[in-house]
Amino acid sequence: MNRFWTTFHQWGSPPTFYRFARALQPWLLVPAVLLIVHGMYAGLVLAPADYQQGDGFRIIYVHVPAAWLSLFVYTSMVVAGAVALIWRMKIAEVYVVDAAYAGAGFTAVALLTGMLWGKPMWGAWWVWDARLTSELILLFLYLGVIALNRALPDRRSAARACAILAIVGVINVPIVHYSVEWWNTLHQGASITRFEKPAMPMSMLWPLLELSLGSMLFYFWSVLLRMRGSLLERERRQAWARAVAADAQPS
Amino acid sequence: MGALWIRELRSYWQSRFEALQCLAVFSVVLLLFPLGVDPEPELLRLMAPAVIWGSALLACVFGLETLFRQDLREGWLEQAQTSIWPLPLLLALRMVAHWMFTGVPVVLAGVLGAAALGMSEPGIRAVGWSLLLGTPSLVALGSVAAALTANLTGGAMLSALLVLPLYVPVLIFGASAIALAEAGQGTDASLYLMGCSLLLSILLAPLASAAALKVVAE
Amino acid sequence: MTPLLSVRQLHHERGDRELFGGLDVDIHGGEILQVVGPNGHGKSTLLRILAGLIRPDVGTLAWRGRAFTSWEDEPVAPLMWLGERPGWAAAHSVEHNWRYLRSLRGLTPDREACWIDPAWWPRRFGDLSTGQRKRASLAFIEISGAAVWFLDEPLSGLDVAMSAQWQSRMQQAASRGTAIVLVSHDALTFSPDRVLTWTGEY
């Protein structure tokens, strides 16, 4: 048990994490680029056009990974937030705040691509579809976390406040989703038609999986990059951060 | 316990005119909607659920600022933390008092407003019930945002941004109860769902608010 | 003898600065402990951690050798805090504040004879002068029955005579077994049992 806690705190110590993140980043970036490039090629060129939607369906290769990541990032923020509140682990605090920016970005991409897809399919840029509406509310939750973090003066208590907000939000997200869906069933006219999808052929599915995995690796790469910056800034008075900064300077 | 409760009521009674501003905001917003559109009875009745609930949400958000700010300024939190009572319990008392002085007037005004918007009798009843079940949830959820921004000057805007997305379910269930009643259908489903939201928020909001107050006061 | 309150291996940071790195403190009944040191090095933070207002980053607090929050055996709230802001509501009368604070701490909500001028009872707390407010809040501490008092600048705002009076009152309380931890810039008229000098430098 004791050994567990020692390891745990070592992991949580900024210099150890910084070095670990720096060493790990290339191992994330290279596969991410390979997967995304190959997935894009396979999805946009090799995969056949959809018999119902034509080439328009290809936007799912951006939309689905972004939407999936927008939920994944929020969930991971909640887990990190709980760790930050219970064990006061500094890395977790940094993660909660830094992940919010990437999460907001993915949510915005998912919304935009959803709208681009909706225009030809539904005939309108925006429809009050349950999933789109929940996604929009998720964007506001992300923006709330970012705004709260910027408003509070002390970095550490700001991060913990964001963690509380994220946790309250995550209880709310399923309720919001459910309530919007319920609202849809009450009000839904004929304007929205769900496409009953036949099973996706493998040539369409593979690129999607590749792109999802690639985007996720890319997300981890980018969040580590951001966390490294935040850690250096937070710990700028510590010896290790000064050493890193001195190394980076051209001698 | 009794003395604790008396003090909450006394605080709100002393600043009752400030608390009644919530009611004023609610009424003014309610008034603005018909002025913005053609005051045709059919149209007004169609818009009524959204108008009433939108006004209630705004009124509640404006009221949140008074929840904890004075306490932090006067050092109440430290005395509460070193007391024999759990902080969430003390905050729950505060929320109930806050609701009595800001929520209850809104419920009553909502019923009057529904009549003014030309709603049918079941519709008016649905307005009353949905506001009665919904406004405590608004206060409870709002208290978390109020606690997170309690230490900021001009945190009202931020607290509105934080809390309005969380209000979506209450808005949907509340407005749909009214719309269903107006359409002559049963409102039980909506009201039960509101009751569930209320229970959940009453149980969790004091805990989250207590954690939030401690974090921002550090 | 088991100390009333003990802290082990206290680590805490504020902002990006480490305030404490492995501090141990014991507080025994009947002693007056003064924390001194330059501003901005965490004296008040230390006091807040000891009073349980802030959770430290790392470190354990024990109350009478047991977990910190086990107050079951305590008849009334055992820790009393007085900071820059006393926790009295300016809009309420002195008497109402008094009753409220008593019931917060598990005491019966009565008015009683104490270090308060009886003429103050019906007045709004916010209408008292700075010195009167300070005296009222100190008077409450005296009757709180708390085992440990945490006082952040208890003498500021008091005139010389009142300051001397309060200091002898503190000594009397300590002789009855109350532990007092205080941060003060003013020179004390007596020498405290222990002085914790805190420079915050490592």
Output the number of helix runs of chain C.
4
Kindly state the number of beta strands of chain C: 9
Number of helices of chain A: 8
Structural class of chain C: alpha/beta
Low-confidence spans of chain C: none
Shape of chain A: globular
Strand content of chain C: 25-35%
- How would you describe the shape of chain C? globular
Q: Mind explaining what this structure looks like?
A:
The complex is a heterotrimer of chains A (251), B (218) and C (202). By secondary structure, chain A is mainly α. Chain A has 8 helices and no strands. Chain A has helices at 2-12, 14-46, 60-87, 90-122, 130-151, 155-187, 202-234, 239-248. In chain A, helix 3 runs antiparallel to helix 4 (90-122), helix 3 runs parallel beside helix 7 and helix 4 (90-122) runs antiparallel to helix 5 (130-151). The model of chain A is unreliable at 188-196 (pLDDT under 50). In chain B, 83% of the residues lie in helices and 0% in strands. Chain B contains 10 helices and no strands. Chain B has helices at 2-14, 16-36, 41-63, 69-74, 76-81, 87-116, 121-148, 156-163, 168-182, 188-217. In chain B, helix 7 (121-148) packs antiparallel against helix 9 (168-182). Chain B is elongated, with a radius of gyration of 18 Å. By secondary structure, chain C is α/β, with parallel strands linked by helices. Chain C contains 4 helices and 9 strands, in the order E-E-E-H-E-E-E-H-H-E-H-E-E. Chain C has helices spanning 43-50, 94-104, 130-143, 160-175, and strands at 5-14, 17-27, 32-36, 58-63, 66-67, 79-82, 148-152, 179-183, 194-197. Chain C has a 5-stranded parallel sheet with strand order 6-7-8-3-9, with helices on both faces. Chain C has a 4-stranded antiparallel sheet with strand order 2-1-4-5, with no helix packed on it. The longest helix of chain C is centred in the C-terminal third of the chain and has 16 residues, at 160-175. Chain C is globular. Chain C starts with a strand and ends in a 5-residue tail after the last strand. Chains in contact: A-B, A-C, B-C. Chain A binds chain B through residues 85, 137, 140-141, 143-144, 147-148, 151-152, 154, 157, 160-161, 164-165, 167-169, 171-172, 175-176, 178-180, 182-183, 186, and chain B through 141, 144, 148-149, 151-152, 155, 158, 161-162, 164-166, 168-169, 172-173, 176, 179-180, 193, 197, 200, 204, 208, 211-212, 215-216, 218.
